[in-house]
Amino acid sequence: MIDINWRIFEIKHPKATDAFESLCYFLFCRKYGLKDGIRTDFNQVGLETEPVKYSDGKYYGFQAKFFDKNINYTNILDSITKALANYEKLDHIIIFINQAAQPSCISAKKIEAKCADKGVTVEW
Description:
By secondary structure, this protein is an alpha/beta fold. The chain is 40% helix and 15% strand. The chain has a four-stranded mixed sheet with strand order 1-2-3-4. Helix 3 runs parallel beside helix 4.
């Protein structure tokens, strides 16, 4: 796998956060076979787009976060909390971040536990 140099990404994309969200949008659409994309506005409450229903009957959503330095798990938790409160039909959340996630850290486990309480799985 190719390592992405985020400093070069920021040079090529002066609005790195927007570019990262677009990249994540395309990755999400590709993963779930959404050839026509998702007909929605970006930055819905807690998620980047409305959740989509996949062929397995479950609803999938994603959150994209671009951090300059350290991962701000509190920021992620805030978005995920809003998503859980606003989308009853949400079964799975993908969290895209531009750094290596540490799903074993206390903050990440808190996010996963909050999702599990609502029956939602998390993918980092």
